[in-house]
Design brief:
globular; 246 residues; binds zinc ion
């Protein structure tokens, strides 16, 4: 184990100091993260060249990338932190595309939530998530496609390396290839820095997810009934790799 990982393992107090920074703290002392933070409406301090992560996730990422480089790969982050507004741009673009194909509003929302989180519920709001590919391979095709990671796909070796090594740096695949899992489709590219993301998810689900999502001005919101949001919470927000649940 290298020195940085030792640092991460032993600096428990440093971790507490980070999560209780006043800008992130709520008025109630039991919460380490504010409502605004958890839904991508704050402005957290983020780090990284070509990506944006919280400090500890950034440090762990650098270690993981160094190890990948020793194996001839380079971890390219396609997406990391996304604000509420950024997520809403993605949500809106996809929703409109489905609507333009004459799909109903309800179906457009159902199609959206196969891969795209409702703004205000994306793990990408937290500064702990990364969508990654092997940057040492040049390609003109869209990188985040499952086909690329399996069979003769260009990122098959990279996916296998990540399968074997990401956990050493506390990065964990979120939307696994487990057929009993519901919610978002399998995403071989999406990893979460568990140490920070686990407590964030716990805090998030302790909030009133119904009102968080109903309070936003979003396309397709008419479909956000109580039943829909309960199901979405169970399937999409909590339908993840069990090792990321507290
Ligand atoms: Zn992602």
């Amino acid at each position: 184990m290298n020195s940085r990982r030792n640092f991460l393992k032993t600096s428990v107090f440093a971790g507490i100091a980070i999560i209780t920074t006043p800008s992130l703290a709520l008025s109630t002392s039991s919460n380490a993260y504010s409502d605004k933070y958890l839904i991508g409406k704050s402005t957290p301090k983020l780090y990284g060249k070509g990506y944006r992560l919280l400090w500890r996730a950034h440090e762990a990422f650098l270690d993981m990338d160094n190890a990948a480089r020793k194996n001839g790969m380079r971890i390219r982050v396609v997406s990391s932190y996304r604000s509420f507004n950024h997520q809403n741009l993605i949500w809106t673009r996809k929703y409109k595309r489905y609507r333009s194909r004459k799909l109903s509003s309800k179906t457009a929302v159902e199609y959206n939530i196969r891969y795209t989180a409702i703004p205000g519920s994306s793990r990408h709001h937290w500064g702990t998530e990364i969508d990654v590919v092997d940057g040492s391979i040049k390609t003109s095709r869209y990188p985040l496609s499952t086909k690329n990671f399996h069979g003769y796909g260009i990122y098959k070796n990279f996916r296998e390396w990540m399968d074997d090594n990401a956990h050493k740096y506390d990065f964990c695949r979120v939307y696994t290839n487990d057929h009993t899992r519901r919610g978002f489709k399998y995403e071989p590219w999406h990893y979460s820095f568990a140490e920070l993301a686990k407590p964030m998810l716990k805090e998030y689900t302790e909030r009133d997810v119904q009102s968080i999502l109903k309070d936003q001005e979003l396309l397709g919101k008419i479909n956000f009934t109580d039943t829909f949001i309960d199901q979405y919470t169970k399937d999409n927000i909590l339908g993840i790799n069990k090792s990321l649940l507290v």
